[in-house]
Design a protein that fits this description.
Layout (H helix, E strand, L loop, with lengths): L2 E4 L3 E4 L4 E2 L15 H9 L7 E7 L7 E7 L5 E5 L8
Antiparallel strand pairs: 1-2, 3-4, 4-5, 5-6
The structure holds zinc ion (ZN).
Length: about 90
């Protein structure tokens, strides 16, 4: 069982959450971006080993977005916080 600590609701089972990605950078000038730039933004993601900062939504709870620092090798949740409030690594 994997628990995620929601900063608003407390520890909850992972099944209450929806993965929201890792915050890919949107093209700086969306009107000037070409198809390959949009394809990179929409579909291409890094798949890092180790610590990874992600966004999750507590979709079956308070429905708020939270920041999660997770170890992708062990699935351990290292820290959670409100978006933009994770401490530096
Ligand atoms: Zn919550």
């Amino acid at each position: 069982m994997m628990l995620i600590h929601c900063p608003h609701c407390g520890a909850r089972d992972v099944t209450e959450f929806t993965y929201g990605g890792a915050g890919a950078a949107r093209p700086a000038d969306p009107a000037a971006a070409d198809d390959p730039q949009w394809a990179d933004y929409v579909y291409m993601r890094d798949n890092p080993r180790g610590l990874h900062d992600e966004l999750w939504q507590h979709s079956a709870g308070c429905r708020r977005w939270i920041a999660v620092r997770r170890n992708t090798l062990t699935h351990d949740v290292i820290a959670t916080a409100r978006p933009g409030e994770l401490p530096p690594r």
